[in-house]
Amino acid sequence: MTTMRNLFIVLLLTALSAPAWSNMSVGVVDLREAVFSSEAAAEFGTGIQAELEEEEQQIRALQQEAEEMQQRLETDGAMMSDSERERLSEEFERKVQEFQQRRGQFEQAVNQHQQQFLQQSRPLIDEVMEELLEEHDLDIILPAEAVIYVKPDYDLTDEMIRRLNEKAD
């Protein structure tokens, strides 16, 4: 009985709030796409990539070494002595752990750099959002992640990218 009552209340509130939503102008922006698709993000990414390139190469080398050890264990393991197989297996485990640890640290460093870029870009993002609100006479801009479907006319992501690029020049 309480489920029916709760459902009725939700339907009633939805019906009563519909007139308020009908007069509201809404736009949608995929903020992450807009910011990281901008020219400034591309320049930032190039700088970060150069900074972290050596670490990335070392991580790839670790991964390759671990894969080679695993393949050797699978192909030659039956012919190895117990002690040799155990030694190689332990070395493989250490290599895998080192790879996972360094990969995690690398991903954390990349995320920190991305957050730093977002923080630096925030004033420009806010400025462009205000312009979009005013020029399109919008009441609200929703993040694309919160929207199931949006007509292309209401998606302002491409316009935001264009404006971010113009202001960065």
Describe the structure.
The mean pLDDT is about 85. The chain is mainly alpha-helical. Helix content is about 80%, strand content about 5%. The chain has helices at about 1-20, 30-35, 40-75, 80-135, 155-169, and strands at about 25-30, 140-145. Helix 4 (about 80-135) packs across helix 5. It has one domain (about 25-169). Strands 1-2 form a two-stranded parallel sheet. The protein is built from 5 helices and 2 strands. It starts with a helix and ends with a helix. The longest helix has about 55 residues, at about 80-135.
Task: Give the SSE map.
Layout: H1 2-22, E1 26-29, H2 31-36, H3 39-76, H4 82-135, E2 140-143, H5 157-168
Parallel strand pairs: 1-2
Give me the secondary-structure category. Answer: mainly alpha
What strand order characterises the main sheet? Answer: 1-2
Relative helix content: over 70%
Mean pLDDT: 85
N→C terminal distance = 62 Å
Number of helices: 5
**Which series of helices and strands comes N to C?**
HEHHHEH
Strand fraction equals under 5%
Write down how many β-strands occur, each being a DSSP E stretch of 2 or more residues: 2
Shape assignment: elongated
Which value, in Å, is the CA radius of gyration? 26 Å
Can you tell me the number of structural domains?
1
Low-confidence stretches: none
- Biggest pleated sheet: 2 strands, parallel
